[in-house]
Amino acid sequence: MNSGDTAWVLASAALVLIMTPGLAFFYGGMARRKNVLSLLMQCFFIMCLVGLQWVAFGYSLAFGPDINGLIGSLDWAGLVGVGAKPFDAYSKTIPHLAFMIFQCMFAVITPALIVGAFAERIRFSAFAVFILLWATFVYDPIAHWVWADGGWLKKMGALDFAGGIVVHVSSGVSALVMCLLIGRRIGYSNTSFAPHNLPFTVLGAALLWFGWFGFNAGSALAADGLAANAFVTTNTAAAAAGLAWAFMEWLKNGASTVLGVVSGIVAGLVAITPACGFVSPLASIPIGLAAGVICFYAVAELKPRLGYDDALDVFGVHCAGGTWGTIATGIFASRLINEAGADGLLFGNPNQLLVQAVCFAVCIVYAVAMTWMLYKLVDAVIGMRVGVREETIGLDLTQHNEAAYTVLE
Amino acid sequence: MKYIVAIIQPDKVDEVKRALEEANVQLMTVSNVLGRGRQKGITEVYRGAKEMQDMLKKVKIEIAVNEDFVEPAITALMKGARTGEIGDGKIFVLDLHEVVRIRTGERDGNAIG
Predict the structure, then answer these.
(1) Each residue of A193-248: pLDDT tens digit?
(2) CATH of the domain at B32
(3) Which of A126, A321, B30, B89 is the most exposed, fewest CB within 10 Å of its CB?
């Protein structure tokens, strides 16, 4: 046991927790006035819902004693046997409970990322059921395969330091499936969906950037040099991606926007997530720059061309950024940075790129198939989309009987 | 000259604007309002306390036009704002006595467009 490591991981868990409210404001600001509360509500509701699911059985499914590399057993349900002593396979220097609660915050924010895709048109009850099912049947298994002791993708050698695949690709691609199935918002082609409060979005991005240090540097599970490396690569990639996005906007539209800079920052944070503990600070610059350009194209070019209504660009930022980060890990990873990792393409090991691609493909196929099935199930039983009148009036009033802003004093 | 006041659904503003533009009506004033028709509003609840607000958000569009443009403007408003559902709103047409353009002091027909 090491008190420094324990303190850092507990503090990191708190940092990752604040990312979900940060995400709520990031999304809420981009929505229209009549739906801002529904987005804040969905993010906060997930903190409660998955926070309990994780303790009850989610942690056990994801990280519990392995069954054939596919899933954890329910032996640790209710945190039985998960206590103050370290569990050596995950970390020898921090309490098992500290590892559990750190991972809990990842399990919370991942489904919350999807919220942006079906924003402004989902029925709240259907949302709650869907999220519980998704956390259980999509997140928990994928987390097991990639991160858990005995997980089959981990044994294959896949590198995902802090969740490029587990968190961002899985949620990003599921978001695409959700927005295709639920359909475009009313008025997609002929009304303005301009963000109602960009300062909220900037505030949210600030909280996300701040919290991401816990997400990435905390994933070292120790207060050591590797954590410092992850911290520096995280900050550098975010900075590079913010600049890249602003530059792309300036090239295309003649002006850089604040929404563009914060979107680029988040894209850079996403892309560095799988790589932050395997690549050097210098490598994080091209990773960040490319993330800004790739995600800009996904959001500003690909989406309008294909016409899917990914309301707040979950696919364009998280899946595109996570995909690039996963590939970049296979290119730039070096054992000089992390002995427990592997060398990538640039360090003479092209095989790592292949392993990364296989891991990526497996998770994409699984997440798409399961999200499709869960959508169909919940849609048949409850009905996923609100009626035309509810959607027109807004989800705040019709789903929650509240309004964010009054018109009269 | 007529003064046209239309109360419409908030998310119909863009469509109405486009329809008016097609009818060559460019000038308008738009404001957020609360209102209720026969369908009433939705009761809000804050920490268990019911707020009988009973109002829904609407948008008010005001347009001043010469006689020639009255019917085209009404047609455009209908075209842009109508869904056929309850709550589509209303159009009020009022007589307009005088218009003054502040910058030049022009009056009436010359000042209106």
Answers:
(1) 999 999 999 999 999 999 999 999 999 999 999 999 999 999 999 999 999 999 99
(2) 3.30.70.120
(3) B30
Domain count of the fold of chain B: 1
Q: B interface toward A at CB cutoff 8 Å?
A: 9-11, 13-15, 18, 32-34, 42-46, 53, 56-57, 85, 87
**Residue A409 in domain:** no
Measure the CA–CA gap between A39 and A29, rounded to whole angstroms: 9
Q: CB distance A392–B11 less than 8 Å? A: yes
In a domain, A297, yes or no: yes
Counted domains in chain A: 1
Instruction: Give chain A positions within 8 Å (CB) of B33.
Output: 407
Q: Which residues contact A86 (CB under 8 A, 6 or more apart)?
A: A1, A92, A93, A94, A95, A96
Nearest to A315 by CA among A373, A256, A364: A364
Asked if residue A347 lies in contact with residue A329, where contact means CB atoms within 8 angstroms, the answer is no
Question: Which A residues in the span 362-401 are in contact with B, Cβ-Cβ below 8 Å?
Answer: 388-389, 392-393, 397-398, 401
Please name the residues between 160 and 219 in chain A that touch chain B, using a CB distance below 8 Å: 186-187, 190-192
Distance CA B70, CA A133 (A): 56
Domain containing B46 equals 2-112
- The pLDDT, as a whole number, for residue A167 is 97
Q: What angle do CA A45, A11, A157 make, to 5 degrees?
A: 85
> Hey, what are A209's tokens?
């950037």
> What is the nearest CA distance from A397 to chain B, expressed in angstroms?
7
Q: Which CATH number does the domain housing residue A138 bear?
A: 1.10.3430.10
Is A349 within the bounds of a domain?
Answer: yes
Domain range for A33 is 3-400
> Taking CB atoms and an 8 Å limit, are A407 and B18 in contact across chains?
no
